[in-house]
């Protein structure tokens, strides 16, 4: 389990640290303070510097650029991961944790020897830069060709074999965002749920919103989900005859399903949740936190979540007040870049802040 996180020259952080991390960590702070960036940093670090994590984060944010080819889609740009958006030879960032070593990304100018080793004939020009990712989990890592604007280019080594995917040990990392509601990724996790006989956990999570729910069914026919990425799941209710499509309910139900499946998939790993309260009513906040903390403890999952909601914070405070046994599992980190270190509140501090109406968001 990670006990601290240090960011150097990463996105909006010149130098920043989170300390005394718990099993479940709630990140709070103003808009654009860097909460989501911290989740992305954790994802990259625990994934041992896998560049696919950078491309997913860039695509999710719409950070793309011209890759210099005559045709094809615009490529993800890694330039915005560097402090001050400064990208060029000598630029770099570093992430580290006492619980998981370190990983860094450095940019250097390409030389003539790189052409035969790295670049495909499909590229229209010789890219001027190379991105090298280093870390404590590996020794020799292939360099990645990039354009001056940070756009990643095709590389033989990455196209034919991703060396990061072969590194062991590599804990499971699940990243849940307000937009990650497509059912196809959930469908893959459902196979694991069935194999391990954990359907009851997913059903229990969704009963927070629908008390009479008794079953979840992922349809197998391609036709059942051909019209929409959100189709193909039916819900069964006590006393009802016909099962009802999940899409007939609000995004709160879909959000709870994604959350419960992510908790199952992240066993012995890391779960990152951006805007954990999205789509959920304030009345279920305490129960939602009970689900997250209890499951995280049972499945050895470390959770990092963000929120802007005072109701979400109140729900967590209410939980630790009623469940003293969970106090050591929970903390809150207030992110403020100017301080250089997040302000940590333990379970007692969270309760005091709520009772005294202290603004911590």
Structure description:
The protein has 361 residues and is of the alpha+beta class. The chain has a domain of 98 residues. The protein has ten helices and 17 strands. The strands form four sheets. It has a six-stranded antiparallel sheet with strand order 2-1-6-7-8-9, with helices on one face. The chain has a six-stranded mixed sheet with strand order 10-14-15-3-16-17, sandwiched between helices. The protein has a three-stranded antiparallel sheet with strand order 11-12-13, covered by helices on one side. Helix 5 crosses helix 7 and helix 6 packs antiparallel against helix 7. The model has no long low-confidence stretch (mean pLDDT 85).
Sum up the structure in keywords.
10 helices; alpha+beta; single chain; six-stranded antiparallel β-sheet; six-stranded mixed β-sheet; 361 residues
Secondary structure class reads: alpha+beta
- Give, in spatial order, the strands making up the sheet with the most strands: 2-1-6-7-8-9
Order of helices and strands: EEEHHEEEEHEEHEHHEEEHEHEHEEH
Beta-strand portion reads 15-25%
Beta-strand segment tally:
17
Oligomer state of the chains in this structure: single chain
- Low-pLDDT stretches: none
Our count of helices gives: 10
- Residue-averaged pLDDT: 85
Question: Could you tell me how far the N terminus lies from the C terminus, measured between alpha carbons in angstroms?
Answer: 25 Å
């Amino acid at each position: 389990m990670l006990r601290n996180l240090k960011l150097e020259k990463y996105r909006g952080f010149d130098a920043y640290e989170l300390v005394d991390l718990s099993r479940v960590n709630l990140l709070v702070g103003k808009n654009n303070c860097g909460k989501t960036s911290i989740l992305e940093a954790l994802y990259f670090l625990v994934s041992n510097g896998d560049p696919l994590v950078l491309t997913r984060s860039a695509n999710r944010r719409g950070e793309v650029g011209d890759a210099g080819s005559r045709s094809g889609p615009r490529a993800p740009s890694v330039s915005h991961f560097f402090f001050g958006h400064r990208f060029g030879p000598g630029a770099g960032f570093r992430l580290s944790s006492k619980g998981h070593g370190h990983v860094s990304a450095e940019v250097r100018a390409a030389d003539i020897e790189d052409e035969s080793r790295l670049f495909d004939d499909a590229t229209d020009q010789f890219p001027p830069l190379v991105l090298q990712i280093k870390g404590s989990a590996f020794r020799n890592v292939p360099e990645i060709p990039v354009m001056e604007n940070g756009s990643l280019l095709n590389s033989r080594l990455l196209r034919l074999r991703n060396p990061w995917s072969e590194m062991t040990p590599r804990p499971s990392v699940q990243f849940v965002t307000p937009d990650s509601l497509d059912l196809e990724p959930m469908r893959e996790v459902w196979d694991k749920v069935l194999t391990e006989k954990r359907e009851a956990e997913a059903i229990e999570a969704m009963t927070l919103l629908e008390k009479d729910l008794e079953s979840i069914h992922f349809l197998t026919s391609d036709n059942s989900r051909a019209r929409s990425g959100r189709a193909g799941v039916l819900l069964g209710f006590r006393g009802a005859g016909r099962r009802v499509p999940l899409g007939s309910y609000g995004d709160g139900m879909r959000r709870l399903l994604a959350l419960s499946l992510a908790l199952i998939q992240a066993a012995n790993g890391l779960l990152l949740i951006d805007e954990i309260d999205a789509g959920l009513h304030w009345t279920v906040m305490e129960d939602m936190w009970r689900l997250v903390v209890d499951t995280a403890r049972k499945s050895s999952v470390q959770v990092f979540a963000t929120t802007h909601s005072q109701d979400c914070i109140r729900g967590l405070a209410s939980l630790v007040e009623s469940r003293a046994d969970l106090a050591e599992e929970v903390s809150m980190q207030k992110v403020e870049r100017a301080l250089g270190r997040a302000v940590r509140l333990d379970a007692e501090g969270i309760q005091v802040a709520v009772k005294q109406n202290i603004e911590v968001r």
